[in-house]
Amino acid sequence: MKTILKILGVIILLIVVYVVIAMIAFGSNYHYEKSMVIKAPKEKVWQQVSSMQAFNQWNPWMKLDPNMKITYSGNSGEVGDKYCWDSKNDEAGAGCQELKEVVPGQKQKTEMIFKRPFNGQATSEITISPEGNDTNVTWTMDTEQETWMKIMRPMMDYQMGKSYEEGLNNLKKLVEK
């Protein structure tokens, strides 16, 4: 019994130490970035990242709920191009994503507003650049995290890595066919 209590005490101490270190070590700004080289010319890749409807053809979160309600507004591929989603599935939740900056053939920047299951906002950027006959695609996300979310950062990195990898692989399959 004494050994079990010691083990439990050590585990609790390690958790407390981790939480304190996470609160101190991780800043409030969160940045995630993933890149992939796609064997296609940048013009073909740009067609799939330049508008919200095109983005949703490879967006990994679209598969969370095939019955998700999606509404589009604004001019496709221009600043103000926007889609909003609403799902009964808490993993998908509800929110909107809007194009805030477009550099044709090079970059699009969006703002995401999350309404459910939590409130928040983030920015995302997709940049493309030629790499010989191929195209390098870099997808980023930036947000400000509340203090309590800092302890979740390693798990968030893991989940973002999986989602961004899936999305970029979806894009790769779409443009390389």
Describe the structure.
This protein is an alpha+beta fold. 34% of the residues lie in helices and 36% in strands. It contains four helices and seven strands; from the N terminus they run H-E-H-H-E-E-E-E-E-E-H. Strands 1-7-6-5-4-3-2 form a seven-stranded antiparallel sheet. The chain is globular.
Mean pLDDT comes to 87
Largest sheet: 7 strands, antiparallel
Radius of gyration, rounded?
19 Å
For the record, give the distance between the C-alpha atoms at the N and C termini, rounded to a whole number: 62 Å
Total helical segments: 4
Topology diagram in text:
Elements: H1 2-25, E1 29-38, H2 42-49, H3 52-55, E2 69-73, E3 82-86, E4 94-103, E5 107-116, E6 120-131, E7 134-144, H4 153-176
Antiparallel strand pairs: 1-7, 2-3, 3-4, 4-5, 5-6, 6-7
Give a summary of the structure in a few sentences.
The chain has 177 residues and is α+β, with helices and mostly antiparallel strands. It has helices at 2-25, 42-49, 52-55, 153-176, and strands at residues 29-38, 69-73, 82-86, 94-103, 107-116, 120-131, 134-144.
